[in-house]
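chain below, 274 aa
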Amino acid sequence: MIGSGKASSAVTVVNAFATGMGAAIAIDLWTYANVEILNEEKIEMKITVRGKEMQDIRLVKGAVDTLRSFTGASFGVRGTIESEIPVAKGLKSSSAAANALISAMLNAMDIQISPMQLLKLSVEAARRSGVTVTGAMDDAATSYLGGLCIANNKKDELISRSEVEKLPVVLLVPAEEVLSEDLKNMDFSPLAPYVEKILQIASNGEWRRALVLNGLIYSAYLGYSPEPIKMALEMKAVAGLCGKGPAFFAITRDPELIAEEWSALGEIVITELR
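prediction:
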């Protein structure tokens, strides 16, 4: 039994750390999974991220355990995961990998379920593997469905999804890495009253304003310099912080200009909303 799946990266409109409610927009960077279902309970997975082989298979184990519980079947998996998404930068790499892998295994088993059922399995896989702070339904939904998604991570509910114009996106990807598990003991509750207002703004369709405010607040709280956001705003773009960071993003009709201005601050990747 052989199957495949894919899911994309996303950028943050509202970070769910403070309230459990979050919003994100999908971007055109992808993770691909190809699997074979095995009769024996073993895992053989080659994971490659941007050409570099990775050894951490916690998410694979979490996904396999989740599907074993869901199906009641005993099985193993062999295959590959190949990703274009930088890891530990706030770009939803874990959500994309979980989505792609769950989708591939379901495909291999010829199991048909609804998108929301698949997303709940994906979120459960991420929780079992310890790679998420909030549960990340907002990130998982955006990664799998595309567009702008707003979700309640506490209830694993998708509140809304809407299409967005496929505008260019510039990513600023510093060398620093920040793992979600590193933030598990950090108290984000002081931000809750402000993030609730930002979520209202996003829910009213003003996602550009929301992502800038979110980026400024979380950058300050997490200790990142807001300089990339300031630079982008001065060039008439909107910019924010990608998840927990350290990556930033700008949405602009003149990506080359932003890329040039940001080039001294880290790696630059140009893509688009999807």
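The chain has a mean pLDDT of 96. The chain has two domains: 2-162, 168-272.
thats it, cya
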